Amino acid sequence: MFTTGSKFLIGASAVALLATVIYGVGQDGVLGTIGLASATVGLMALTALNAILRDSNVFLDDDAPVENTAAAQPAPTGSVWPFGFASGAVVVAVGLVSYQPVVVIGVVVLLATGAEWTVHAWAERASSDGVHNAKVRSRLSNPLEYPIGGAVALGIIIYGFSRIILSLGKTNTTVAFFVAATVVVVVGFMIASRPKLGSAAVGSVMAVGAIAVVAAGTVTGIRGERDIAEFETTTIWQEEALLHPEEYAAGAAEGKHPAGLICESPEEFPEADERASETVGMKSGTYQVLLSESGTLDFDPPGEKEAGAVGMVIPRSSTTNVIFRNDSDEHRRLSLDLGRPYTVTDYESEIGNLDESAPPTQICTTLIEPGGAQLLTFKAGEPSFAYESIPNPNGPPGADGFWFFVPGVDTAKLELIVP
Amino acid sequence: MSARTDVANHEGTRERAARATTSLKTVTTRTQGARLAKVGGVVVLTGLIAGCAKNAPQDTFQPRGTNAERINDLALPVFYIAGVVGVIVLGVIAWTVMRYRDRGQPIPVQTHGKPALEIALTILPALILIGVAIPTVGTVMALNDTDDTECVVNVTGQQWWWEFDYPVQDGCMPGGITEPIVTSGQMAIPVDTNVLIRGTSRDVIHSFWIPRLNGKRDMVPGRVHNLRMQANEPGLYAGQCAEFCGLSHANMRMEVAALTQDGFNRWAANQLEAYESPVEGTVAADGESAFVTNCSSCHQVNGLEAADGNPIISRPDVGVYPGAAPNLTNLMTRTDFAGASWSLLREECRKEVWEAEPDQFTDRYLEGVTDDCFNEVDLREWLRNAPAKKPMYADPTKLAETGGLYRGMPYLALSEDQIDLLLAYLLERK
Ligand SMILES: [Cu+2]
Question: Domains, chain B, ranges and CATH?
């Protein structure tokens, strides 16, 4: 009947023909159709030629060698690779109509199972001895299978764990992993104390564990990450108010948020002021600015504070972290007013060109509960003496320069001096 | 090898050959041993001589500050203990190797363990370590004390120089510091005064270290670290950045000028003196306008005013990556520039300052850079092409990483005439 080569070419011709028809009708692109049609004709010509030459195989009609050579003795073994390969093809197809990343997964499966299948098929013809063939296969495949398989398995377990941790809350994670650690210790102890335990039993325990992790990871992964509170939104509120004043005013009129700049407002803004004091990770090596019960603002630098300080002094252009501690009994925020910028036209005369209408440079923490703390990070690119004689409405009456202040507490003022 | 074979062939008998071989071997060993001894001797001697160096301004073993003395008093005994332990251990090893070397004797009976010895050899080092730990912990605590602070200075590192600013305070001197002082490269402190450094960095991690006054402390962006500076006698104390910080790390030096209290008062008063424009019609006056045009965008000179009477405020953050450039108001009151890497004083004058006796140092230092002592050469080269003198990332075509900002002072394409004017102007900044 048909030789292997002609079977391949007949199939290829049929596919090319089909593609020509589908493309020609569906896309009606002339050039593409001509190309595909040419390919079809070429393939058909090759098919005909091959059918006449019968794969140019002189032994084709001679049954003897097929039956007698040792290498031709069939020793087929069961194989999952064709199944895996087919699954990969399906995944690719699914990916093409759904999400692109799925295609990548499919291609990886195709490549991996294809390679395994090839090696398997090749090893099956090594000799007539099945055991020997299996050895040959292992010798070629294992050096790749073990490390890659191990890495993938580890990756899956780590990914599973990360999903679990991201989904469970802080406390739940602690509990869950305490339990998990206990189980691991107990099981490990049990296995260790029974040296005669078969490898199958140990293996199945491991499998159960792995399945549990993967299952829990899948479930929590689908459930999604727990709510992680959003921070740093005071800047967004501040910018909204300055960049889109009309929309901002409209929002305030509808009662969606308080009117005015967030850094000048003692009121609570939606979202920005929620669970604010959870952000202080830095505990040392920073300045502290303290709002006292009596409503005064003071600072506490690392080490000793200089005697007779008139304000907090920080170097120019240096990123500065300040921990704001609210020791009053109201919810309060710490704000910093770095003055109203002047238009920089020419450094010789820039100080003269104060832009009265320009918005102030302000930064603030969220509203902090009594006893709470939060970090304020900022940098002053200009010295405070550049703002000498430019009034700062957030400082004490008649003050100029840079000022820390607490909206709603008129007595809470602290000068920031940048030499 | 061939000599040995020759001998063997010549003598003809095995015995003789063997004897000849042995004698040849001894000869080689002897000459090799002699050579080794010579080389070793030279190495040891060099080490010893280097240890005696007179001119070692960064020698931790010559402490001049209370904290440096504490460190020295801890390090030396620990070093001696470790030395004794080292000699004993090496001696025992050497003795064992010689005593039990293979002489063809039968393998002795093998035993396992000797509890008494093992316990003793665990307890003894533990005791030694505890003995070392007690003074160590005490010293660490003492070094970190800040509550006896008498003066506070903010120290800020950046690539590749140090800035010192003195906040307004009651401390440092009688009457206190009334206006902020900003300087760079050289930090003036009153002698016998507990000065507290509040240090940070504007770009990467640097480390502040004046070996003769105290240990080192990393200065980390976004954080503030403390370090005590205190000197027991007036003098200049050299140091250098001790944390690799990029291209010109090696040129990031700094010095502490410890002055008598009276000298420090004079220094501070001078720093705060009102700005005086050069006399009209002089070269320096032309230099002032050249400075305003070419340099004021980065370098602050306090009190310098524009034609309209407004103060000129530098904006180094617009052009320089760390956002700062040295304040040049009183450049000529320091004796070094550009990360204390080059001298503003000619060699003889520089020597005078560095080698001044403690009781004369303050007066000599406070003279600053006089016309006679001014070392024009290095500063001229700096102005001609700063990046050629000190490696810096200041090639305008290669600033993509910093968004067009320089790390260091760029090449400014000044003419020699402009440089003359600028030098005349700078020489008056004191
Ligand atoms: Cu450095």
Answer: 283-334+369-427 (1.10.760)
